[in-house]
From TrEMBL:
<dbReference type="InterPro" id="IPR050525">
    <property type="entry name" value="ECM_Assembly_Org"/>
</dbReference>
<feature type="domain" description="VWFA">
    <location>
        <begin position="1"/>
        <end position="114"/>
    </location>
</feature>
<dbReference type="InterPro" id="IPR002035">
    <property type="entry name" value="VWF_A"/>
</dbReference>
<protein>
    <recommendedName>
        <fullName>VWFA domain-containing protein</fullName>
    </recommendedName>
</protein>
<dbReference type="Pfam" id="PF00092">
    <property type="entry name" value="VWA"/>
</dbReference>
<dbReference type="InterPro" id="IPR036465">
    <property type="entry name" value="vWFA_dom_sf"/>
</dbReference>
Amino acid sequence: MTSGSRRCYTNVPYEGGYTYTGDALSRMGTELFPLARAGVHRILIVLTDGRAQDSVSEPAEDLRDVGVHIISVGVGNADYHELEEIASDPDDDNVFTTSFDSVVNLAGSILEDVCKGENKVYVTEKLKKYQ
């Protein structure tokens, strides 16, 4: 990750408020993934630092049912059980926790691999290095 993109990630202001992860997952299923090109890996990386104010189980299951591979990354005080509810199986390959400092380094690395079409094994191995 370049120093410019690192500054970009670290300078995003926190506006406070509630966490509606379930709603975000539902929107991914109705607004983003239906637009994906055929034959493209459907990978969703969910990054959260807390607990959702809404249910995540059904929206996450709906995404997995249509072939979306979900990796959940918890930062700080994220709810581990909720990360497991969101992620694809097996949890050992798809549920991660990390610190705020490490997630900045991780973001660019994940994006590079996903954009190159790397398979989930390579992405999850890279994630494990940042735990």
